[in-house]
Design a protein that fits this description.
single chain; 255 residues; mainly beta; four-stranded antiparallel sheet; 3 helices; 35% strand
Length: 255
């Protein structure tokens, strides 16, 4: 009888452990946004450009972390030793490029090849939340690449992430909810400048976005998919992508 109760207890324990939903593939996926498109806002007001110029956010790492294309995240100690803090599911669809998780206020943020963005407690290794950064039509397509390749950016607790699944998003850093998403597939580093985000999509187009609501100010064609930078020249603000100079307010190519 005791053996029977023991077996029943172990069976319940096993089933309970298996029933816990695994947030990283496989599992129920919830896309961050549907098919709606943000309206074009037109030219950026000069005062918005001026105020944003001095607020360009650079990626700053307080601690060293490493990530591989199999969705494993490691903490790198000062002596070079590695401690694995996360192991996700590897995927067939991925981009073989180096990537670096972002460490901010004792938490690690990493974009995965599954199109998921995760927040990890660096001390306990617990997953605080998972956010899907992709458009639903891409998840349903066979062989879709949902990889989050572009470096994440955190600016005053505003978390920005861009994935290959037609989603560039601002994510609530506390709970992982999306604040807004724009229909842009992103692979290159982007620039956050205060109330403006300058993003080069894989479609070779430069997007100027309002960081408050994700609205698109203007869109311009680029010759190279590289990180944008902003410059003040002779009293006028420009966004530079490769050798192209764009008027920051209107997106007009200055060439």
């Amino acid at each position: 009888m005791k053996k029977t109760y023991l077996l029943l207890f172990l069976l319940v324990l096993f089933v309970g452990a298996c029933s816990k939903p695994d947030p990283i593939l496989p599992g129920v996926r919830t896309p961050v946004f549907g098919m709606s498109e943000p309206a074009l806002l037109g030219n950026i007001p000069v005062d918005v450009v001026t105020n944003s110029f001095g607020r360009i956010k650079k990626i700053e790492q307080q601690k060293s972390y490493e990530q591989n294309i199999n969705n494993e995240v490691f903490e790198i100690a000062s002596d070079g030793t590695k401690r694995k803090i996360f192991a996700g599911f590897p995927t067939e669809s991925k981009i073989d490029v180096s990537r670096t998780p972002l460490f901010y206020k004792n938490f690690v943020y990493a974009g995965l090849t599954t199109g998921e963005l995760i927040k990890i407690n660096s001390k306990t290794k617990n997953i605080e939340w998972i956010a899907d950064v992709y458009k639903d039509m891409d998840m349903l397509s066979v062989g879709s690449v949902l990889d989050i390749v572009a470096p994440l950016v955190i600016d005053e607790d505003r978390l920005f992430a861009g994935g290959m699944g037609h989603a560039f998003c601002q994510i609530n850093i506390a709970n992982g909810d999306k604040k807004w998403c724009a229909d842009i597939s992103v692979a290159s580093p982007f620039m956050i400048a205060g109330d403006i985000a300058f993003v080069v999509g894989v479609d070779s187009r430069l997007y100027a976005l309002n960081t408050k609501n994700g609205g698109v100010y203007w869109v311009a064609d680029v010759k190279r998919a590289v990180q944008p930078r902003m410059k003040l020249d002779d009293g006028k603000y420009f966004v530079i992508v490769g050798k192209q100079w764009f008027d920051a307010t209107s997106g007009v190519d200055d060439d």
